[in-house]
Design a protein that fits this description.
single chain; alpha/beta; Rossmann fold; 6-stranded parallel beta sheet
């Protein structure tokens, strides 16, 4: 006989958990006490529960294994909510354990009681409060299984304090059967054959690839199918890297900040073959005119995603790797020379580039392309994310981790910490903006105390740049609540950058206080030296503060809800 807390530790070991991201508290203290005698699990103590769960998310995305969290009840649990939603929207296997008040106190407004299961039910695949010691083992097993199968996602197991303390069996199941939960893995062969028939009759077929291909680890299969058929490939932000970005059949990202040629390919194709994407508004623009000339084939592990946003002609439910292998076995080379020539001409005529002089984000991101053969890059959300996805080259050795579905600021730094813990021999770079960076800036301490030499590229333009850009382009330059230099003494309407007060905080002094290596970069010719400095640091994170022009915008841009052809290029639209 062992306690529920001891069984919890046994379960983690049975699930091969090597890293646990955890923050203690009163209603979880028995779980932490049970971990005291274990030597096999590396327990990481971040500085905030949101940062903790983002770190577990980054660990999961970069390793392909479940990220595992442990926190206490009440505010400890509620602080997880944003990170849980972030992981679930991007189909990341995240397993969260929360302490809870004893069963007898639930519903009585006990100290630090919160109905965390009720709060997260809509943003998890599975959320449950354990009601008996006898059900604890099966519940944990079910949570790990659900998180990692079908369309992966976040799960939460809430363990009351009396369940942690109760004695019971030490048995932990090796498998689990869940009534009504049977994820479809094998694609329907009849639907595959229909898709092949559509491919063979198309004159301008196009693959649109989302994050589902990367989640299924089907990059090699996608590349093999593209090369076998000769069909061009475009990607969403989450799908970028599913095929080498230098591959001659790759034509860029689509969507509101997508390459003009890629968006034009969507409008001109006669068959859109989509794998692992939801067709959300940032990808499709105006759904009524999206791919209006095309038949649409859609493969996805989640049946609820098919025809939800865009009606499709051939729906296929199944794992991307399985479906791609079935397609490879049934397809043949297609004569698409004219179509490929058209897309190459568009790519050459409308390159994605930044035309401003001086230090600009394109030069920074492109330097990453030349410095590292293997690399993991995380981003925050905002202009920093968009510039990174525009200019970063990806392949099987170079990965991008970013919050695509929820668009969570504050993701970049803790995700980089998790990625580095899971991949200690791979360089990890976080590209962040000065807004999002400050949302989880406390995790610099986590990087320092764990000796993690992550490189943080801070693109500092003193604004919430993405919102400022929208205010400039679409709201008559009415800059409200987007200037991060603004103080109470400033006039209501900005008087110009030459009158701005100093920026708070001073990132150099802040880095020094945390024990982080630091450089400020103001000129283009300082970029190389800055990265050389960062690479010299051993077991210490480095903060590189790049001073970006305040008015630097992300182009091209399509207003959400508009046709993908209604693009603005900047510089008076060239």
């Amino acid at each position: 006989m062992i306690t529920g807390a001891q069984l919890f530790v046994k379960a983690l070991k049975a699930e091969n958990v090597e890293v646990l991201f955890a923050y203690p508290g009163g209603q979880a203290i028995d779980l932490f006490d049970a971990l005291y005698d274990d030597e096999s699990i590396n327990i990481i103590l971040p500085r905030h529960e949101q940062g903790l769960a983002h770190a577990a998310d980054g660990y999961a995305r970069s390793t392909g294994r479940a990220g595992v969290c442990l926190v206490t009840s009440g505010p400890g649990a509620t602080n997880l909510v944003t990170a849980i939603a972030t992981a679930n929207y991007d189909s990341v296997p995240l397993v969260c354990f929360t302490g809870q008040v004893p069963l007898s106190l639930i519903g009585n407004d006990a100290f630090q009681e919160a109905d965390i299961v009720g709060m997260v039910r809509s943003i998890t695949k599975y959320a449950v409060t354990v009601r008996s010691r006898e059900s604890l083992a099966a519940t944990i097993k079910k949570a790990f299984y659900i998180a990692q199968t079908g369309k992966p996602g976040a799960v939460l197991v809430d363990i009351p304090k009396d369940i942690q303390q109760a004695m019971g069996s030490e048995d932990y199941p090796s498998s689990v059967e869940i009534r009504g939960y049977k994820p479809t893995v094998k694609a329907h062969i009849g639907q595959i054959k229909k898709a092949v028939a559509f491919l063979e009759s198309a004159q301008k077929p196009l693959f649109l690839i989302g994050g589902g291909v990367r989640i299924a680890h089907a990059e090699k299969e996608l590349t093999a199918l593209a090369e076998r058929t000769g069909i061009p490939v475009v990607t969403t932000i989450m799908g970028k890297g599913a095929i080498d970005t230098d591959h001659p059949l790759y034509f860029g990202n689509v969507g509101i900040h997508g390459a003009y040629g890629a968006n034009t390919a969507i409008n001109e194709c006669d068959l859109l073959f989509s794998i692992g994407t939801r067709f959300n508004d940032r990808v499709a623009g105006n759904k009524d005119t999206f791919a209006k000339n095309a038949k649409i084939v859609h493969i996805d592990a989640d049946p609820a995603s098919i025809s939800r946003n865009v009606s499709v002609d051939v729906p296929i439910v199944g794992d991307a790797k399985n479906a791609l292998n079935e397609l490879i076995a049934r397809t043949k080379p297609l004569a698409l020379g004219g179509w490929i020539q058209r897309l190459n001409e568009l790519k050459a005529e409308y390159p994605v580039k930044i035309e401003s002089d001086g230090l600009n984000p394109q030069d920074i991101i492109e330097r990453l392309n030349t410095l590292f053969d293997a690399l993991i890059v995380t981003t925050d959300v905002g202009q920093n994310q968009l510039w990174t996805t525009q200019f970063l080259k990806l392949n099987e050795h170079r990965k991008l981790l970013t919050s695509g579905g929820l668009g969570t600021m504050g993701f970049g730094l803790p995700a980089a910490i998790g990625a580095k813990l899971g991949n200690p021999d791979t360089p990890v770079v976080a590209v962040v903006g000065d807004g999002g960076f400050q949302m989880n800036i406390q995790e610099l301490a986590t990087a320092v105390i764990n000796g993690l030499p992550v490189i943080i590229c801070l693109l500092n333009n003193s604004w919430l740049g993405n919102v400022r850009q929208w205010q400039e382009l679409y709201y008559g330059k009415r800059y409200q609540s987007t200037c991060l230099k603004r103080r109470s003494v400033c006039p209501k309407h900005c008087g110009g950058s030459d009158k701005c007060p100093p920026y708070v905080p001073d990132f150099e002094k802040l880095a020094e206080s945390y024990g982080v290596a630091y450089r400020r970069i103001t000129l283009k010719d300082q970029i190389g030296e800055a990265f050389s400095f960062a690479l010299e640091q051993k077991n210490v994170p480095t903060l590189l503060e790049f001073m970006i022009a305040e008015e630097e915008n992300v182009y091209p841009i399509v207003l959400p809800g508009k046709d993908l052809s209604t693009v603005r290029f900047g510089k008076e639209d060239r």
